[in-house]
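testing teh design pipeline on a random one, pls ignore if ur not involved
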């Protein structure tokens, strides 16, 4: 009985016990430490920087910085000295660092952020380093770019280096005429001109920038020209431009440079992508017949429509454009008992569809009792440069299976399955940020690739059906087959908002092939009418209204593959130069 009573008391104690945190004590403790420093009380060490003396507390310094903790808790001579001289620090910046250590507050400005970062880097203060890095990255502009770029190069601050490169890529034409551009090192120059993201209309712009850089200090830089030439994309130049470059004085007086160019031209390196500024965003629509695949590349904003046909008669189910502008489509081979899915990749330079080099997926054995089952409504999506394929186990099935492609093993790997409440004819899957979202008319599910798990999101989507959905930024837009209601889902706040639907309901009979797409950072919708007439509308969010673009698509039956019209950046000379129609 006593034991039982003691057990009850123990259980009660366990239930009643809890941990409490006194926030006022935490803040008050730091405030008290700061007051002790101001009052010069209990200080037990003096740090000397550039001749200035800073009385401090060993305990506080050790708690704040691994650098000081190692100094004062080891057998180093400094651990026993009352005065420690610190080398490699600026006295004013060290005063700022001490202020942060004793108050938790850091004051950052452009005139001192680099010196603060250097001091924090030496003293191993991670918070100060991160804060300074982010501050520099947010303040990249014409007057600061090169200075920050050089600083980031010396201290290997990736976030700042990338921010500088992005600014230079976007403003390359203007930047290439500046004194700051001419002050770049050869390594910085080649790093910049090697990127796909340069916003230039012609490759001659890159060549002319290199010429200005060399001529800025001709004697010192001319010998670098042969190595720099490897980063110019000569395959994108016209024959006239090439002839002019080969006759340029810098090339003619340097036999090595001339030889480099001729060798590069002989290689015909089609892997060198066009620069960002040379490409045009194009929507891909598919037309399939018995022997050929036809694609329409269109930009209704610019009135550009180019048709191409390919000798690759495929049964396409879905397409995806990756963040690297690679275009993939999934082909189904249903001629055998075992259903096979294979992936094709679009070769931009040759305007040709080729095998992606991935193994096929054997998704269903139809020889058994469930021979009527088939892969249904598959979606190919990308997250962080990894391809995922998600599909229902059968038409009307409630189990969604998914596989991801592992580049290292060249295998498709099983992922967690998703169970949904209803048969999923009206559903779609797409990526947004670092997650995959699966939408039905009543449910929203999110997949986390890092955890390989699905979670249900609230509130549920309220649409009669989910015909099409597309991602723009951190939002997902979707609408129904008849385009009567459009909704936007904010993935960060987990909230839905109703947008205006089609402004002309009932005037034309739609053919249940409504597709959303994002072109030039604007939401569009492609409507197919029963008479095979196409309409393209663009959404004005500020006015909450759709505007007819008066698109003039060719009189051929085209349709989108997947939950939305895929959009890719296309180098038009490649299309026109290899066009088959």
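output:
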């Amino acid at each position: 009985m006593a034991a039982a009573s003691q057990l009850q008391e123990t259980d009660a104690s366990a239930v009643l016990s809890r941990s409490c945190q006194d926030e006022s004590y935490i803040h008050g403790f730091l405030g008290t430490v700061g007051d002790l420093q101001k009052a010069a009380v209990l200080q037990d060490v003096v740090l000397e920087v550039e001749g200035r003396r800073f009385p401090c507390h060993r305990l506080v310094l050790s708690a704040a910085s691994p650098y000081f903790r190692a100094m004062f808790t080891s057998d180093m001579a400094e651990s026993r000295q009352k005065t420690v001289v610190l080398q490699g620090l600026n006295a004013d910046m060290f005063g700022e660092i001490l202020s942060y250590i004793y108050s938790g507050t850091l004051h950052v400005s452009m005139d001192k952020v680099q010196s603060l970062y250097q001091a924090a880097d030496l003293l191993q203060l991670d918070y100060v380093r991160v804060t300074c890095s982010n501050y520099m990255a947010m303040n990249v502009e014409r007057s600061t770019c090169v200075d920050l770029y050089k600083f980031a190069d010396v201290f290997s601050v990736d976030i700042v280096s990338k921010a500088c490169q992005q600014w230079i890529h976007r403003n390359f034409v203007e930047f290439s005429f500046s004194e700051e551009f001419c002050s770049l090192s050869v390594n910085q120059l080649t790093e910049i001109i090697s990127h796909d993201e340069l916003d230039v209309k012609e490759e001659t712009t890159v060549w002319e920038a290199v010429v200005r850089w060399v001529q800025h200090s001709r004697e010192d830089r001319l010998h670098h020209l042969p190595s720099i030439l490897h980063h110019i994309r000569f395959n994108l130049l016209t024959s006239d431009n090439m002839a002019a470059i080969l006759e340029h004085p810098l090339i003619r007086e340097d036999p090595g440079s001339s030889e480099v160019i001729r060798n590069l031209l002989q290689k015909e390196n089609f892997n060198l992508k066009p620069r960002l500024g040379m490409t045009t965003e194009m929507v891909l629509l598919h037309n399939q017949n018995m022997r050929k695949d036809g694609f329409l590349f269109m930009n209704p904003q610019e009135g550009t429509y180019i048709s191409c046909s390919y000798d690759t008669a495929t049964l396409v189910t879905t397409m995806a454009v990756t963040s690297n502008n690679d275009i993939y489509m999934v082909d189904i081979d249903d001629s055998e008992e075992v259903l096979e899915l294979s992936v094709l990749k679009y070769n931009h330079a040759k305007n040709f569809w080729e095998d992606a080099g991935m193994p096929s997926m054997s998704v269903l054995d139809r020889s058994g009792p469930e021979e009527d089952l088939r892969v249904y409504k598959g979606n190919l999506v990308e997250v962080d440069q990894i391809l995922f394929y998600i599909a229902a186990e059968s038409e009307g099935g409630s189990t969604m299976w998914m596989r991801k492609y592992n580049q290292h093993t060249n295998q498709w790997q099983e992922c967690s399955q998703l169970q949904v409440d209803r048969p999923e004819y009206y559903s779609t899957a797409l990526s947004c940020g670092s997650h995959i979202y699966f939408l039905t008319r009543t449910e929203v599910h999110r997949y986390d690739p890092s955890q390989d798990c699905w979670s249900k999101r609230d509130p549920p989507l309220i649409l009669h059906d989910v015909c099409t959905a597309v991602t723009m930024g951190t939002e997902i837009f979707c609408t129904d087959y008849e385009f009567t209601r459009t909704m936007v889902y904010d993935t960060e706040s987990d909230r839905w908002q109703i947008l205006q639907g089609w402004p002309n309901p009932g005037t034309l009979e739609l053919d249940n092939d409504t597709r959303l797409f994002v072109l030039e950072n604007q939401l569009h919708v492609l409507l197919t009418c029963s008479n095979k007439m196409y309409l393209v509308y663009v959404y004005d969010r500020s006015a909450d209204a759709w505007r007819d673009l008066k698109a003039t698509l060719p009189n051929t039956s085209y349709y989108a593959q997947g939950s939305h019209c895929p959009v890719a950046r296309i180098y038009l000379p490649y299309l026109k130069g290899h066009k088959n129609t």
